Amino acid sequence: MRRFRLAPEARQDIREIWSFIARDSLDAAARVRQEIRDECRRLAQNPHIGHRRDDLTTREGVRFWPVYSYLIVYRPAARPLEILRVLHGKRDVRRMVD
Fold first, then answer.
1. Tens of pLDDT along 22-75?
2. pLDDT of residue 28
3. Which conformational region is residue 12 in: left (phi greater than 0), alpha (psi within -120 to 50 degrees), or beta?
4. Spatial distance between the Cα atoms of 38 and 98, rounded to a whole number of angstroms
5. Which of 12, 57, 60, 63 has a Cα-to-Cα distance from 50 of 20 to 30 A?
6. Burial (CB count <10 Å: 0-12, 13-18, 19+), residue 42
7. Pair 74, 81: CB distance under 8 Å
């Protein structure tokens, strides 16, 4: 099984997502967090299924994968796969990734 590594920013993003959702529902927060981690594992197994988004970053070798309203930002060439950020799609993703 291939692995993934959460960058400190991604780890913080996931904590913030959980905290925000948990205000309304601990169960929903747990489900979203689990889904994000499941998708990170999926990306580790299939690193090139994500999308390049030239509209969101000029960084080379970065891909995006949607989970609910969030975007997992990752580097498919890194070993283990590196999850850079997990951001809500309505945030200024360009500013936060570049």
1. 999 999 999 999 999 999 999 999 999 999 998 888 888 999 999 999 999 999
2. 97
3. alpha
4. 25
5. 12
6. middle
7. yes
3.40.50.2300, 3.30.2310.20, 1.10.10.10, 3.50.50.60: CATH of 4-97: 3.30.2310.20
Instruction: Give the pTM.
Output: 0.91
Q: What is the DSSP string of 9-74?
A: HHHHHHHHHHHHHHTT-HHHHHHHHHHHHHHHHHHHHSTTSSB--TTT---TT-EEEEETTEEEEE
DSSP code for 80: S
Please provide residue 56's backbone torsions phi and psi, each rounded to the nearest 5 degrees: -110, -20
Rounded to whole angstroms, the Cα distance separating 50 from 73 reads 9
Q: Give the span between the Cα atoms of 29 and 31, in whole angstroms.
A: 5
Q: What per-residue confidence (pLDDT) applies to 68? A: 93
